[in-house]
Amino acid sequence: MIGILTDTTASIPQRLIEKLHIEVVPYYVHRGLETLRDMVDVKPGEFAEWLTGANRLPTTSNPAPGDYFRGLRNLASRVQGVLALTMTSKGSGAYQSCRAAVEMFRERTPDVRVEVVDTLQVAMSQGWVAIEAARAAMTDVGFEDVLNKAREIARNGMMIQTADTLRYLRMGGRIGRAQHLIGSLLNIKPIISMAEGEIVALGTARSRLKSYRRIVDLMQQRVGEGARIKVAFTHVAARERLDQLQAMVNTHFECTEIVISELSPALAVHSGPGTVGVSFFPVP
């Protein structure tokens, strides 16, 4: 049996975590003098409500090597191998932290194979990698097959999201290559994605409806009209907005699996309430 380890920024719904036995290591949210474990001490709904009126953004930090080590040890008691999947190394120190933990783990538990994959993704595009790898592992295929599946989903996945503002992303220092949009956005909705592990701007729209249409256009450019896809609809305190986007996506694609996911607080702090998006990949 092969175990799958990832972190809370993957924003995987709890029911799938439990069903697929995925080991999830929490990020940290630092709010004033409080240090909160992402998705453990602080949950998406309550955090988004607090964030709406916050005058100063919390900071976040990736799990320490010791956090990953404990996750590896938890899995080692029931598996013969572990695949650890981190969010993009270009937006966080999680990958390096996880690698340090793996080196310690290998010294103490040399009979359990462990590999680390930098997904170069975030949110449910990272989450899909963990989900599909866990599903492959449950079919009792070999380690290399699970590893190849994870790399395939990471390579083919795409995240697109729109927010009410880039304020949170800028203040959190995660704006990446979308920096040029700052100063030009008032009521304009930014549309962002990931490219080679970095946040990039894919355009803007002047209303939510137009931003959703643009998201669908970008999905069509990526996989083609009518393509079979698995898609996660992600949001920050904006569940009611997903219905409209989901209806548009269903019209243009054959969705073989749909997941609704709230972004974890460690991500929500950078995108802010009102964020809506998709994470998807093509299905052969």
Could you please describe the fold and organization of this structure?
The chain has about 280 residues and is an alpha/beta fold. The chain has two domains: about 1-25 and about 60-155, 3-Layer(aba) Sandwich (Rossmann fold), CATH 3.40.50.10440; about 160-280, Hypothetical Protein Tm841, Chain: A,domain 3. Helix content is about 40%, strand content about 25%. The protein has helices at about 15-20, 45-50, 65-75, 95-110, 125-135, 145-155, 165-170, 210-225, 240-250, 265-270; strands at about 1-5, 25, 30, 35, 60, 80-85, 115-120, 160, 190-195, 200-205, 230-235, 255-260, 275-280. The strands form three sheets. The chain has a six-stranded mixed sheet, sandwiched between helices. It has a four-stranded parallel sheet with strand order 2-1-6-7, with helices on both faces. A three-stranded antiparallel sheet has the order 4-3-5, with helices on one face. Helix 3 (about 65-75) packs across helix 4 (about 95-110), helix 5 (about 125-135) packs antiparallel against helix 6 and helix 8 (about 210-225) packs parallel to helix 9 (about 240-250). Residues about 175-185 have low confidence and may be disordered.
